[in-house]
Amino acid sequence: MSSVKDTGKNGKKGGKTGLIVGVTVAIIVILVLIGVIVVLLVSRKDDDSADNRDNNVSEDTEAPRSDVQERRDVVVTEDNVAEIAAQLAEEEYTPPGYYTVTQNYEWHFGKGGSASDDAHVENVVGNTNDVYFDLFLADDEENPIYKSPVIPIGGVLEGFALDTPLDAGSYDCIMEYHLVDENQDTISTVSVTVTAIVGE
User: Fold this and answer.
1) Average pLDDT over every residue of 93-119
2) Which of 183, 121, 110 has its CA nearest to residue 147?
3) Strand, coil or helix: what is 47?
4) Residue 121: closest CA among 58, 200, 76, 39
5) pTM of full prediction above 0.70
6) Where exactly are the structural domains of the chain?
7) 178 and which of 12, 32, 161, 186 could share a cystine (Cβ 3.0–4.6 Å)?
8) What CATH class has 98-198?
């Protein structure tokens, strides 16, 4: 009578095979993650380089997207790596909004609330949004001393008077641009400093 003797070699071989498969899966997941990260970094670098090549006007200021819901990254696991990679491949990277500020930074106003003869604000053709701005005294950013009309792309605003007349003197001011969509809803803001000089 013959019998089959189990030496246990098959069990060890199965354990080694499972270990090899596990390590292989882990290496594939890591390689996919590295590939996704490299693709994202390269596309962002190319977009930033293109933006830097287009600096042909006075000042480019990045506009934080204040009214847009913040997007958060997703944790990538072994279970969702293929799904996340597919989503990233389909999405087009959108860089933060930029606005080219073209203006002078020292505005002179006559006494009695007269219009400025040198204030100049332009929304250059290279911009992508209409804008308006509010002007505040640097120590009171709650009450604007001037509210501009909407300046369309390519438009220029000059010869305006302050909404709140000021006594003679020099005033440090904050100018807050609002980039607006077609419904004139603010999509982001940009702040710059201006000096308002009121004559006697």
Assistant:
1) 79
2) 121
3) helix
4) 58
5) no
6) 9-58+69-90, 98-198
7) 186
8) mainly beta
